[in-house]
Write a structure and sequence with these properties.
By secondary structure, the protein is mainly alpha-helical. The chain has 2 domains: 53 residues; 30 residues. Helices cover 83% and strands 0% of the residues. The model has no long low-confidence stretch (mean pLDDT 88).
């Protein structure tokens, strides 16, 4: 009877350890995904900072040139708006 009690206790401990191992593996996978997402976000921020730091240079002062700069700014605005 004592042997059965010890065996049951060992099985219970092994099952508990396996459950903890599975949870740990899931957590590690989630952290790895988060790190990849953060790296993509950092790269996007670098690109946006570069894009936004570029000065506006007008080759000509006409409607077409102004529209070109407005369109470029709208693309940037859409890229940084919440939800994108």
């Amino acid at each position: 009877m004592a042997v059965n009690l010890v065996a049951d206790c060992l099985v219970s401990n092994i099952v508990s350890l396996l459950c903890r191992l599975c949870k740990l593996e899931d957590t590690l996978a989630t952290v790895a995904q988060l790190e990849r997402s953060m790296q993509r976000l950092r790269q996007w921020l670098i690109e946006m900072e570069h894009e936004m730091s570029m000065p506006l240079v007008f080759q000509h002062c006409d409607f077409v040139e102004i529209e070109k700069h407005i369109s470029r700014q709208q693309v940037i605005d859409i890229g940084i708006s919440p939800g994108n």
